[in-house]
Amino acid sequence: MRQQQRSSRGHGEAERAGADLRSRRLGRVRLRRRLGAVALHTLIAGVAVLFLVPFYWMVTSALKDTSQIFAQPIQWWPTPARWDNFTRALSYPGYPFLRFVWNSAFYAGSVSLGTVLSSAVVGYGFACLRFPGRDLLFGLTVSTMLIPGIVLFIPTFVLFKHLGLLGTYAPLIGPAFMGNAFFIFLLRQFFRGLPRELADAARIDGAGEFRLFWQVMLPLARPPLLVAAILSFMWTWHEFFAPLVYLADRGQYPLSLGLFAFRAQHATEWGLLMAAATLATLPLVGIFGFAQRYILGGITLTGLKG
Amino acid sequence: MPLMPGQRADRGALRRREARTGLLFVLPWLLSLLIFTACPVLAAFYLSFTEYNVVQPPRWVGLQNYRTMLTADPAFWISVKNTAAYTLLAVPLGLVGSLALALLLNLRVRGLGVYRTLVYLPALAPPVASTIIFICMFDSEGGLINAALRQVGLPALGWLNDPTWSKPALVLMSLWGLGAGALIFLAGLQEIPQALLEAATMDGAGPWLRFRHITLPLLTPVILFNLVIGVIGSFHVFTPALVSGGTTGKPLESTLMLMVHIYRHAFRYFAMGYASALAVVLFLAVLMATWAIFRSARAWLYEVGDDRRG
Questions:
Q1: What is the CATH number assigned to the segment(s) A92-302?
Q2: Nearest chain B CA: its distance from A11 CA (Å)
Q3: I need a surface site. Which of A114, B41, B153, B176 has the fewest CB within 10 A?
Q4: Residues B115-130: pLDDT tens digits?
């Protein structure tokens, strides 16, 4: 449009004056636009900072004593920094935090491994093998996701109680090795997207169904398997309800439960609590750091909340 | 091409073998469906008509548990009201907040990746840890939030120590995690065809009109998804309520949520029959709410081709 204007204008002085005016006007527009961009950036950065405040407060409070945490006016920086909050949290009598970290890693790692392995096998079965009643069973699988966990939880608890497995990790980990509806759904969608010719070619080459799955399909599924592994690790690391119900002995507690128990007994040791909360969050931030692409991709792909 | 008899038998055998392998692949899950889903659902309904303390065998009491709930357990009604109030606050605020955040992130500013990460970070903190952080910041004496309010000349509030402010405090806590919902909205926003928005701009539509008549309608499926997930999640709110208010919903039962009430009866009093009845009620509430949302979505869910009608 601007070019059209320019070509329809006259020559000489008139044009130079016009160009001058235009460039000035353009400059003003550009300035306004730049101011707008600055304002926008400030707004977005402000919102992002707001989201970070609780994290900042957690980490800095982990280095403060209680009077610094609740100082008026706000004391934004810990002076002096109390590093011993961390060492005290890690060696607090009766609360073996390193043990909690290990328990969490073991719990989340086992559930993640079991979930991924079993859900891949089952998802592949639903996606690529034909058997009677398959679609009905898959529909049933998806619809179970609507049942509130607590409805299933009470009778399952009774079952494990009768099996004498209360106070062990078996009820927390065992079921994961038999598949998880959500990840079965996720992985089935992936396997369905693979070309059928691929499987047929391997079959013609004489590969049995299990070798086909293990040596051809599974390696192809590495990205969605990684998404499933990370998400289920993270969710298990966060899990609070099931360990709270099933575990009795403090030496078995995962971090969530250890943190909860510690707060119940020492509600005023804020520096220690924040140090412990930092320790409980840090490993996931670390994992997120190197697998961010997969996690964010997984969340937007599947359209689900972390 | 007609198959030779031998080939047909071959193909039948092949199909049978595939079916066998297929069933073998899904077998673990079929067992899990049976042991950890089908039987527990039936058992939960059965137990809800019994009195059962796990030690003695269940005793059939008919509708007694449901009668108790409706007429003789004031804490049940308190927990229902608390959960409803929490849902009515947390879900709309969460939806509007995450949509606003997504629109902001969708303005194609530089450093989008960094902002996306920052906004998602709160979802990484274990719920117990994030609740503890917020209990510290909400402290009614010298907590960060009251200190900030005082510094700008506003009155300090009681937050988690005050029955009127404890639920809003829990809602604010939940809003810290709205980044995950915002990312889902952002993915939806990025699928809206640019050409549509540009055409509307050419026709002289300002930002508001474009949002109201293009962005919002095309986003309704994502809104529906986030709404359903949000409502179901709020009905199940447990960890923040238990960590901050304990099993009694301190202060003054103001944070006693339905899930906390169920937990208390099932795993503190071992009243499994009554707890099962409560769980069944929660199940029905979830089903009804989901049904109502999908039903209402018929009126506001935009589907391609809707314009022809209007």
A1: 1.10.3720.10
A2: 31
A3: B153
A4: 888 888 898 999 999 9
